Amino acid sequence: MRNRIMRLATTTNTGEDGVATERTVALYRRIARGGTGIIVTESMRVHSSNAGRDHALLLYRKEIVPGLARVAEAVRAEGALFIAQLNHGGRQHHASEIPTLWAPSAIACPHSGGVPHEMTQAEIADVVKGFATAALHAKEAGCDGVEIHGAQGHLIQEFVSLFSNKREDDYGGSLDHRLRFAREVLSAVRESVGSDFIVGYRMGVEEFTRGGITIEESTDAAQRLAAIGVIDYLSLAQGNFSTIDTHLPDSHYPPVTFVDLHARVKAAVPGVPVATSSRIRTPEEAEAVVAAGKADIIGLCRALIADPEWPEKALRGASEDIRRCICCNRCWSGVVANKRLACAVNPTVGFEIEWPTFVRADRPKHVVVIGGGPGGMEAACTAAERGHRVTLFEKSSKLGGKLELARHFLPYHESSYAADDLSRRVAKLGVDVRMATAATCESVMAEAPDAVIVATGAAVYAPAVAGDGSVPVVTYSRSAAGATVIVMDEDGYYWASCMTEALARRGCKVVYVTRFLEALRELPEVSRISTLRALDELNVELRVNMSIDRVEGGTVILRHYYNSRREERLPDVSEIVWVGAQRANDRLAHELRAAGLTAVHVIGDAQAPRRLGNAIAEGHRAGRSI
What CATH number should be reported for the domain whose range is 366-458+584-625? Predict the structure, then answer.
């Protein structure tokens, strides 16, 4: 190990027909080149009963070896150790992915709702054999080791936990019996690969579920498993799919949120190296964890998606240059929808083949960027890195666009990190920034630009509401404590949750209204759970399938979106905050084209109001294209 940083298993959806592709090779090479010490693959399947999504890597098949060998060669050539993660997902899948779910007991998964098939002892033995076969394939491919996934509610943890295991045979009941499957898997894997091969174990330490694994039970389990003499390291995690928000904690959770919990397991197994994880964001936080003896290895997932060079920048003392993860969990929501891994703040993730390196432009040009939001700043930085002379117009006194507003709303202030990181890049790259300067067609043409990137965003507006106008409709509320405020959500994403939660924390009585079938439907599920929990604790009232019909004498009348005969009256409302009504600010782009400028690129919300990731990705592409 060149350092104590471990890239945790992260789904990439780059596989095809069960095997690794050249896109898989390029992605893992990029991570290794950034300086990570140990790279753990995405979760790879060990048995045909759990083949899963279209892009899953099927390690139980011999055909995977050549492609995985190319990945291993690329990673090891960059100086990192390469560990293959072996997993069977058990009951935690939807029927559309796996028609017949396997589990220790025929208990429906609270997440997917699917009732699994209770595995027979013969099937258990066959899955154990599958783990051993998959481990051997990993060794044949040139991996340095394997990691057995026994955490986060997957099959091995399902056997360990009374939450999912109600068996009455040798695989259920006492903790020793519930650990039998894990012991058999570990022993079979070690026998398959021999003593000169790393065997790690990813272990769940607390399920945060009534009747589930507790920290007290997991410390006992860790000692029992370590006593087998097979495990070379433990990688610790928490939760199951019923508490999936703990897998990828967002900003509702404090930094290094589960490290102290993991430290209790480390103390119970002093002879086994332990990896910890969960919202370790900066090198300084990581160093403090190791220095305190709470872990031996720092596991990073989202931080390395946001910036694969996190380790290398930490090594050379350039922490301020790290592109920080904002814990929005866009990465998670994409891969569970069977899309290729992507990131809101790092537009190059998933494009390692198309953009293997950064190529300087053959002929430097003058590029004018209009708008200093995240898309505009990314465009300016990318164009400057290409060697162009860049001028950036920003009409306000601060860079950041809408992200600047997020700075003032806990816990969503971390979104502003993206603006801060981009602002530093803008300054370091020497972009000519014209602050508090509203660009016009005449002022832009006076710059004699070779190309213009229009990143003027979208105008937020409050639609007219029928009635007597007795309740004001606004887009940004300054209501004081005690006021009754309705948040009308037509977007379903972070700005709605940000405004709703902020008003409730301010002491307002908040009623959240949306015509959608569920509240905040566009949020990644892992974030929606923690957000809805926070709103519940703040006594926010939720109204789904409803829209605002009219206002009469301070009363807001809601109408059911799918049953127009049903109304609800909300009296004494101080304000309606409307979220989601936006229009693209693209007028300047039309004027520039009419003036004869052909190289006009319109990006982000100026093209169509969407998400942060769209703006940054389009800004990057525009900067590269010039």
Answer: 3.40.50.720
